[in-house]
Amino acid sequence: AWRLVGYALRPAHQLAAGTQVVLADGRQVDARVWQGQVAAAAEHELLTRGLVAVLAISLAGVAGAYLVAGRALRPLQQVTATARRLSGETMDQRIRYDGADDEVAELAGTFDAMLDRLGAAFDSQRRFVANASHELRTPLAVMRTEIDVTLSDPDADVAEYRRMATVVRDASERANALVEALLVLARTDAQAGRRLVRKVPADLSEGASAALSAMQREIGRYLLTVETDLRPAPVVGDPGLLERLAGNLIENAVRYNHIQGRLWVRTASDGQKSTLVVGNTGFEVEPADLPGLFEPFRRGGRERTGARGSGLGLSIVRAVCDAHGGTVAAVALDGGGLEVTVTLPAAATTPVAAGSASVRAR
Fold it and tell me: Which of 64, 246, 277, 305 counts the highest number of beta carbons within 10 A?
């Protein structure tokens, strides 16, 4: 008989049939039977340990993937949570991601930049609504006060009623002008970045000439010297909006000017861009204040000629430029005054000779 020492046993085919193996406990078994039992036990143990190892690796992989995915998706969760907290009163919420510089960081930065733009838009809208309400309330309050005071006076005569009617008419005209300006601003803002509803050939020089003609009475009243150099400046767009653009610039140049001041208007085109330049000799403007002049209801200062405006003139100019794919820039002049340059894409045309003029209105 063979004595088994561990599993050190020759292969079964090397053993004679009927070979007995003496186990450690003294039992004797057939060698081939014992070898089959050992192989089956080893196979079972290997399978069991393999399953345990696979299960452990799977659990570790799932846990690791969960941790990695959770860390990777945490910024997205922050985006979702921030978006849920947003409202008109909480536009200051930001993600402020400080992780690795990867695609997620780019997404978080883009989201924060979008919130910055939305916050600025909300602030602008709130200011616009508040200012519009105030501007509309003022003429209405004037009309109501005048009517109440006149009606409460038992001794009011025809002259008093006539005076009250004049004040009410002026206030209503101011309110009407403000509403009209608001409608124009809304119309141009709605078309900014989109195709214009009306798009036909036009010329900035014609709009400037028409605006100067419309302001002749005011120009003469304030003894302004007007210098013009109106060269052809062809564009394609909405003629009504372009005429309003030129009218607002020239109206502002008259209103915010000195008595006996200067006003100059130039138009030109280089085949690629058409420009309209309007300048005046007015009050001094700080360079830091220039961007604010294009905000609604932002007035650059007291009107030197005594006229009153809606505070929407330059806002409409900027909106019209945006709607036509152009730009507008203002430059503060040394000694006072402002020069505004409007640049729009030029329409194809054959340039012609231009003239200039300088006239002192009386």
Answer: 246
